[in-house]
Amino acid sequence: MRAVTYVKADTVEIQEKPVPEIGSDQVLLKVGGAGLCHSDITIIGLGDDNPLIGSTLGHEVAGTVEKVGDDVTGWQVGDAALVALIYSCGTCRECLAGRDNQCEVAYPRDALAPLSPGIGTPGGMADYIPVKAHHLDPIGDLDPVDAAPLADAALTPMHAINTVRDRLDADATIVTIGLGGLGHMALQILAATTGARIIALDTDEQKLAYAREHGADLALKSDGDAAARILDETRGVGADVVFDFVGVQPTVDLAVSVVRGGGAIRFVGLGGGSFQYTAASGGLPWGVNIERAYGGTRADMRQAVALARAGKISVAISRYALDDAVQAFEDLRNGRIQGRAVLVP
């Protein structure tokens, strides 16, 4: 089968690999679509000593069941399914508490990232992927190409939003920074599930136009004037919640400068930005809650799938043939993708 393989720093190529054998508790999924994420660009940029070199990439995966292991129940050949982002064990303390994105087995404290398809195990940028039945969710009549990015592009903002759900009253102001793969889904989820005022920011006018059409009450250029405008819009108080889906230094600075006292910031983007915190004098208003959000739980994923099946959210997709994977990586790296690129075998 064909498989998009990480071969050296900043380089992928399509290689021929054997169709995977499956265990008794696994299914063989015929891939219908595999999303391409900025995390994939980050992974292949980690250098030539990366232990993931040689692996098949792809952590946003949906398809149809091709073969079922002897001990698998509840799945039949032809069923459409979405692969979980995090391969949680289901039995540790965190999993049993519903925090499976913090699984002690899949995500030991010193790990680069939780065990996921394409991160420590074979990924879905291929014709087939072996998956434990425990790690599949049904997608009903959704097209697997449209559904694949839900595994991260919708799951991750859904989880970040759910962590501050109690703050999203009808009189709240939300700032969401970055309207790319994750951010454009966050905007739709917020518009579909809250009555709060949404201020969306990006540097790209096309993405700002998208925001105005998909639920933003105000869409602003993310520039040197943005903080003053947000504070003006909130009578100098600041935003109740700020989501940063970029994570570069200017967006981190913006998030810190516009959050209100007692508000919350969710840093999701992996852009490498930072902020200084001093215990006494801070640099933050009192009472601000900050979380470095990662992925989401299976409950979050089922919520995202339900919203997609109801037509309330949808991923903006650019389709690429699997054989054009190198071009898709190049286009994403150079900012030519609006929404998500999806590789279609």
Count all strands and give the number.
17
* Main sheet attributes: strand count, strand direction, barrel closure: 7 strands, mixed
Task: Work out the radius of gyration.
Answer: 20 Å
Shape: globular
H/E series: EEEHEEHEEEEHHEHEHEHEHEEHEHE
**How many separate helices?**
10
Mean pLDDT: 95
Strand content: 25-35%
Helix content: 10-25%
Structural class based on helices, strands and sheet pairing: alpha/beta
Topology, element by element:
Blueprint: E1 2-8, E2 11-16, E3 26-36, H1 38-44, E4 60-68, E5 80-83, H2 93-96, E6 116-117, E7 120-121, E8 128-132, E9 136-138, H3 144-147, H4 155-162, E10 173-177, H5 183-193, E11 197-202, H6 205-213, E12 218-221, H7 226-233, E13 239-244, H8 249-258, E14 259-267, E15 289-292, H9 298-309, E16 317-321, H10 325-333, E17 340-344
Helix pairs in contact: 4-9, 7-8
Description:
This protein has 345 residues and is α/β, with parallel strands linked by helices. It is built from 10 helices and 17 strands. Strands 3, 4, 5, 8, 9, 16 and 17 form a 7-stranded mixed β-sheet that branches. Strand 1 and strand 2 (11-16) form a beta hairpin. Helix 4 (155-162) crosses helix 9 (298-309) and helix 7 (226-233) packs parallel to helix 8. The model has no long low-confidence stretch (mean pLDDT 95). Its cofactor is Zn(2+). This is Alcohol dehydrogenase. Residues 8-343 form the Enoyl reductase (ER) domain. GO terms for molecular function: alcohol dehydrogenase (NAD+) activity; zinc ion binding.
